[in-house]
């Protein structure tokens, strides 16, 4: 059966003085069924982080508008968008005397294929129904410690250096990117992109239940409400984009006017 897309992007300022996250779901200007979801978590002093995250969205939209799916790869689009954003954010340091940085996580949706990439600790989760199929691995100090067996994933949640990133857009060093894709898509699949102000308050099982049981819009609303409750007045900016794949019921063709089906006769 054909598959439809149910999508929603949402954010909340949390308990911060400024919203430095940016989130968008961008349709391709000319290609039906092609869209790009982006979450960027900006850092770097007053307005600096917001400008960095805004640059990620701006660069992504510009590249998507010029993207030709038949001539260019999805990975090229994602990597080029993050690389260009990195260059522009880095250049802005000399103009505004700030130290802006941003994370980025992006998902490109095309008919029959989903491709994603990220830099930093904004995440992408992939579910089938309520079952986790995988998530991105943060480019953070604690994820490195987990990978080498120094701490457990549970210890990483409360580690004092859990917010230290190993790479980001706009830093002095060349950023690190990771990519993945899938053509194994089914109705009931869902993808969630989010900043750390969201994922810090949920385990994967609860996320899966919320996404499987609700529309994209309702899931976003419930996730933000729960994160705000659990933050206890100290919550970070929250941003997320949810993409759900739904099965479309195709109506049966009506018989032509005046057509009367024959009843079979036994010989």
From TrEMBL:
PROSITE patterns referenced in this protein's UniProt entry, alphabetically: PPM_2
SUPFAM superfamilies to which the protein is assigned, alphabetical: PP2C-like
CDD domains per record: PP2Cc
Superkingdom of source: Bacteria
InterPro entries: PPM-type-like_dom_sf (IPR036457), PPM-type_phosphatase-like_dom (IPR001932)
Pfam families linked: PP2C_2 (PF13672)
Residues annotated as domain PPM-type phosphatase: 6-245
Protein name according to UniProt: Serine/threonine protein phosphatase
Organism from which the protein derives: Azonexus hydrophilus
């Amino acid at each position: 059966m054909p598959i439809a897309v149910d999508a929603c992007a949402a954010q909340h300022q949390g308990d911060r003085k400024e919203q430095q996250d940016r989130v968008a779901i961008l349709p391709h200007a000319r290609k039906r069924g092609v869209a790009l979801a982006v979450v960027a978590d900006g850092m770097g002093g007053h307005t600096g982080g917001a400008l960095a995250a805004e640059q990620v969205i701006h660069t992504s939209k510009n590249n998507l508008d010029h993207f030709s799916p038949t001539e260019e790869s999805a990975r090229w689009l994602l990597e080029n968008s993050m690389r260009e954003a990195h260059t522009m954010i880095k250049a802005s340091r000399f103009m505004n005397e700030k130290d802006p940085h941003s994370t980025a996580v992006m998902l490109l949706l095309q008919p029959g294929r989903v491709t994603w990439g990220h830099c930093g600790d904004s995440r992408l989760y992939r579910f089938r129904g309520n079952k986790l199929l995988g998530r991105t691995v943060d480019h953070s100090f604690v994820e490195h410690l987990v990978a080498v067996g120094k701490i457990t994933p549970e210890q990483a949640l409360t580690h004092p250096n859990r917010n230290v990133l190993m790479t980001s857009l706009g830093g002095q060093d060349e950023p690190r990117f990771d990519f993945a894709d899938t053509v194994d898509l089914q109705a009931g699949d869902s993808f969630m992109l989010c900043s750390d102000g969201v994922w810090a308050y949920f385990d994967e099982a609860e996320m899966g239940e919320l996404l499987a049981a609700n529309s994209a819009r309702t899931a976003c609303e419930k996730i933000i409400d729960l994160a705000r409750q659990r933050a206890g007045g100290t919550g970070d900016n929250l941003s997320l984009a949810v993409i759900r794949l739904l099965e479309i019921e195709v109506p049966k063709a009506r018989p032509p006017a005046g057509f009367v089906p024959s009843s079979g006769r036994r010989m």
